[in-house]
UniProtKB/TrEMBL annotation:
Compartments, as annotated in UniProt: Cytoplasm
GO terms of biological process kind: 'de novo' IMP biosynthetic process; adenine biosynthetic process
Sequence ranges assigned to domain PurM-like N-terminal in this UniProt record: 54-159
Primary location group: cytoplasm
Annotated family: Belongs to the AIR synthase family.
Any single Gene Ontology cellular-component annotation: cytosol
Gene3D superfamilies: PurM-like C-terminal domain, PurM-like, N-terminal domain
Name of encoding gene: purM
HAMAP family, alphabetized: AIRS
SUPFAM superfamilies assigned: PurM C-terminal domain-like, PurM N-terminal domain-like
UniProt protein name: Phosphoribosylformylglycinamidine cyclo-ligase
A Pfam family recorded for this sequence: AIRS
InterPro entries the record matches: PurM-like_C_dom, PurM-like_C_sf, PurM-like_N, PurM-like_N_sf, PurM_cligase
Amino acid sequence: MISYKDSGVNIEEGYKSVQLIKEYAGKTMTDLVLNGIGSFAGMVELPKGYNEPVLVSGTDGVGTKLEIAFKTKKYDTVGIDCVAMCVNDILCHGAKPLFFLDYIACGKLDANVSADLVKGVSEGCIKCGAALIGGETAEMPGFYGEGEYDIAGFTVGIVEKSKIIDGKNVQDGDIIIGLKSSGIHSNGYSLVRKLVKDYNVEFNGKTLGEHLLTPTKIYVKPILNLLEKYEIKAMSHITGGGFIENIPRMLPKGKTAVIDINSYERNEIYDYLISLGADEKHMYNTFNMGIGFVICIDKGIKNQVMDSLRESGEESYEIGYITSGEEGICLK
């Protein structure tokens, strides 16, 4: 007789994984969560105080950055990336994350590895104030190679309808503030993996692998803090497509962002990639180039906004301004 385990699926390892994951999920629970991990679905009530609440959702994964985790056997940070990629996106419309769900797929389940992945997800949720209310772990032998995992996530946030940020108030003369990234974040790793052959090479006091696994910065709390005090007209999360694709997404038709690429100090990891052969010009259409999130504001509140960001521990720069035009973005 052939059992499910004989086919490559270890139910007992799955039970162990769930028990380990519950501990991390429990750390993220908020007063809005109505049930715990283990139900068929997670339940969250809407917070009070909204007149016209709008739910804002987003989903994303970590991408090929995962291969570096596989090869260095360090799995506890990519879960943060998974959360960041989702919550930073909905933040662009002014939404506060309420809850998060994750999906992990693998060829052969190792409960300790899956727990490390969810440990990162838990940490990311704590950083943005979202509750990890559920998820799925799928063991698929023969589909994924042994030791290979994929992780993706889904988040739902909330914003008052009258406070949705959509760029409609952007005007000529508004300025663009860039918030420093923590590194490459979670985009462009197919190019990184083509350029980098040894993750154990030392670079600025760490291995290259450690630098490349630096998790994506989560901007939720400092930005929500800003929104309580100032008008932010538009926001963009700098992900795949870099400056070229993402900054125009926050602007209304007929407006162009003029960006001074020399207005800030980019991460040294990008210069290292250039030394390995990366095309610098095209990198602005691939990576965040040291700026992970941008906001558009009236120039009259520049000092207050940058002071607030500094008080929140964020390093920011004035990197550009808005003018009329159909280009969407102009790098100089």
